[in-house]
Amino acid sequence: MNAIAAARRTWNERLFYLFALPFAALVIVFGLWPIAQSIRVAFLDSYTALSPDPRWVGFANFETIFADPYFHASLRITLIFTALSVVANVAVALGLALAINSPLVRRGSTFFKLCIFLPVITPDVAAFIVWKAMYDQDFGAINAALAALGLPPMAFLARADSALWAITVAELWKHVGFYTIIFLTNLALLDPELDRAAMLDGASWRQRLVHVTLPQLRPAITINAVYALIQFLKTFTVAVVMTRGGPNFATNFVSYYAYRRFDEALYGEATAMATTLFVLVGALGYAMYWAAERRDWR
Amino acid sequence: MTAHRRLVQLAAYLGLGAVSLVFVYPYWWMVVSSLRRTQEVMTAPLRLLPERFDFTAYEQIGRIGGIPLAHYVWNSLAVTIASTAVAVLVTALAAYALSRRPKLRGLQLVRYGFLLTIMYPYMLLLIPVYLVMHQLGLLGSYAGIVLFLSLGPIQFFLFDQFFRSIPKELIEAALVDGAGEWQVLWKVVLPMSRNVVGTVTLVTFLLNWAQWFPVIVISTAPTTYTLPAALLLLNTELGASFQAILALATVTTLPVVVVFLLTQRRVMEGFAAGAVKG
After folding, report:
1. CA–CA distance, A123 with B257 (Å, rounded to integer)
2. Contacts of B232 in chain A (CB under 8 A)
3. Backbone angles phi, psi at B67, to 5 degrees
4. A115 touches B: beta carbon within 8 Å
5. Closest Cβ opposite residue B210 in set A15, A32, A123
6. Which domains does chain A have, with CATH numbers?
7. Of A79, A87, A69, whose CA–CA distance to A254 is shortest?
8. DSSP state, A156?
C-alpha cells in the first residue's frame, strides 16, 4: 500500500514538473540564455563576437561607451525624460483617477475611462505615427489648432529643444490610462468609512484628500512610480518612429542608441550599453521602491 | 444639491469631457486625414469631416514592399492568435504547477528566472535573441516569432493570482475522493478558470497584436511581417504619402479598438490586476 502511495507521489511530482516545463523552456531560451549571451558579448570584441572563436576584451567595451560623449548625453537625456515622464504620468493619472472616482461624475465615468485607456491598447507604432503626423509643420493638426487659437506655430519634433517635450506629451497620452486604471482600482478598495468620518468631523475636501485619501493610496503611488520608472527608462519605439534619436541626438535614448550600435554590427558596445541600462533599471527601480516604502508620508 | 456643488460638478464634467476629447481626437484625425487629398489636408488640417471620401490611400496600401496587404493582415491574425494560444496554455500550466507545489525542488527557480527576464529591457533583449534564434535555426520563421511572443510580461501574474485564490480544501477534498491530478485539473480547476483564461486571452491578444520589434528582428524578409511591422516599413519607405501611412495605421488600429470596446471592462481589470501583482 505504501509503495503504491509513494509511486503515485513520484508520478504526481513528475506531472507538475511536466506542467512547468514548457514555460521554463521559454524563460530559459528567450530570457535567461539571451541575457547571459548579452552580458557575455559585452566582454567580447565586436568583430569576433559572433565567430566561433571570439576574443575577450575585458571591460574595453564599457570603457569605450563611458568615454563616448554621445553616450553620456544619451544617459542624461534618458534620465531627464524618465524623471519628466514619471512625474507627469503619476500626477496626471492621480488627478484623472480622483476626478473619475468622484461621486460628482458617477454617470459617464465608464466613458471617460474608455477614452483614457484606449491609447494603452493601441499599437504603439500606429499611435506614434499619428502623433508624428499631427506634429507636422505643413499638414499637422496641432499647429493648425495653435493658429486657430491665435498662438504662434511651434517646431515640435523639428528642433532639438522642443523634441523631447513633444515626445513626453505623446508618451503621456499613450501610457497615462494604464496608471489611471491602477489608481482607480485602488481607489475602489479604499474604506469609505474613513472619508465619511472625516467629513462628519468637518474636514474640507482638501483636508480629506491630503490626510485620508492620499495616505491610503501610498502603495498605489509607489507601484505606479516604480512601474513608470522601469517603463520610461526603456523608452524605444517612440524614438524609432517619431525622431530616430534626433534632431541632433536630442532624443537619442540609451535603448535606441544601443540598437543603432547593434545595427552597425558593434555588438560589444551595443550589449555593454544594454547591460548598463539593465543595471540602471534594476538599481533605480529598487532604490525608488525602497525609498517610497521606507519614508513615512503621514 | 447646493449651487456650489452643481458648479463643481459642471466643471468636473467639462474638464473630463475635454480630456476625453483630447484622448480620442487623434483617432478621428487619423481616419479623416487618410480619406482626404494632400492639398485639402494642407489647407485645412482640422476639418472634422472629409470634403469627399477619397480612397486613393487605401488603394496605395494594397501592396507594401511588394507584398499584398491581405498577406500582412493574415500574418497578424495568425501570429497573434497562435502566440496567444501558446502563451495561455503554457503560462497557465506553469502557474498552476507553481501554486500547487511551491516547495517542489527547483520549481521556484522558474519564477525567479521569469522575474529577471521581464526586468531586462525588452528591446535590448532582442539583440541577443537574434543570436539565439540564429543558433536555433529559427530566424525568418513564423515559429520563432510565435514562440518568442508566447512569453508575455503579465500573463503569469494573472494566473498565479487566480490559482492561489482557489481554496486548498476544494482540491484536497477531490483528492480524498480518489480523483487523480488530471481529474482535479480537468474537472475542478479548469471549470473555475474560465474567467481568468478569458481575461488573459484578451490581454495577450491585444499586447501581441501591437508587437513589432520582435517581428522585425526575427524576420529575414517582409514576408513574415505583421501589420505594425509593415507600418514601420511603409513609414521608412521613400515616397509613401502620409495618407497611405495613416490609412495603414487605421487598418492596424481598428481591430484592437473593436475588440477593446467589446470587452473593455475585462481588459481594463486584467491590465490593472496583472500590474498590481507584478
Report:
1. 10
2. 125, 240-241
3. -115, 135
4. yes
5. A123
6. 63-294 (1.10.3720.10)
7. A79
8. G
3-state secondary structure of B64: strand
Residue A225 in contact with residue A86, Cβ under 8 Å?
yes
Contacts of B243 (CB under 8 A, 6+ apart): B33, B34, B35, B36, B37, B38, B41, B56, B57, B60
Contact B252 A125 (CB under 8 A): yes
Pairwise CB contact (< 8 Å): A112 & B114: no
Using the predicted structure, report yes or no on whether residue B184 has a pLDDT greater than 90.
Answer: no
Exposed e or buried b per residue across B149-178, where buried means at least 16 C-beta atoms within 10 angstroms of its C-beta: bbbbebbbbbbbbbbeebeeeebeebeeee
Give how far B151 is from chain A: nearest CA, Å. Answer: 7
State whether A115 and B29 contact (CB < 8 Å): no
Q: How far is A251 from chain B (nearest CA, A)?
A: 16
H/E stretch holding B63: strand B63-64
Q: Residues B71-128: pLDDT tens digits?
A: 999 999 999 999 999 999 999 999 999 888 888 888 888 888 998 888 787 777 887 8
Our CA-based measurement puts residue B108 at a distance from the nearest CA of chain A, in whole angstroms, of: 10
DSSP 8-state secondary structure symbol assigned to residue B207: H
The more confidently predicted of residues A146 and B16 is: B16
Q: How far apart are CA B43 and CA A144, in angstroms?
A: 10
Distance CA A161, CA A245 (A): 13
Q: What CA–CA distances, in Å, run from B93 to B115, B158, B186, B197, B263?
A: 17, 12, 12, 11, 25
pLDDT tier, B1 (very low <50, low <70, confident <90, very high otherwise): low
ipTM: 0.90
DSSP letter assigned to residue A140: -
Average pLDDT taken over every residue of chain A: 87
* Residue A297 pLDDT level (bands cut at 50, 70, 90): very low
Q: Which residue of B has its CA nearest to A269?
A: B127
In this prediction, residues A162-175 reach a mean pLDDT of 93
